[in-house]
Amino acid sequence: MPPIDPLNLSVAEAALLLSKASGKPVAEEDVREAVAAGCPADAEGNLNLVHVAAWLNRELHRPVAP
User: Fold this and answer.
1) Residue 32 needs a FRET pair 20 to 30 A away by CA distance; which of 3, 10, 48, 53 works?
2) Is residue 46 part of a domain?
3) How many angstroms separate the Cα of 51 from the Cα of each of 29, 58, 64?
4) CA separation for the pair 15, 12 (Å, rounded)
5) Domains held by the chain: number
6) In this structure, is residue 65 part of a structural domain?
7) Do 18 and 26 touch, CB atoms closer than 8 A?
């Protein structure tokens, strides 16, 4: 497998890295749903791992409306 560029990940690469980092399976569909929900991606649908981590952090700490 060629080296993965964490600043330019395909959906498949992002799912693989997130699965390995979390220890839980992350499907490509999960990544696509995150992008549809606002996770930043470029025009080709590629993701920057730093931007994804920042978005996930914001989402985890977002107040839940009553």
Assistant:
1) 3
2) yes
3) 19, 11, 22
4) 5
5) 1
6) no
7) yes
pLDDT digits (tens, 9 = 90+) for 27-56: 999 999 999 999 999 999 999 999 999 999
Q: What is the three-class DSSP state of 40?
A: coil
Backbone angles phi, psi at 24, to 5 degrees: -125, 145
For 12, which DSSP code? H
Residue 52 is assigned to a structural domain of this protein: yes
CA distance 53 to 34: 12
Q: What percent of the chain has pLDDT over 70?
A: 98
CB 40 within 8 A of CB 48: yes
Amino acid identity of residue 15, one-letter, is A
Q: What amino acid is encoded at 32 in this protein?
A: R
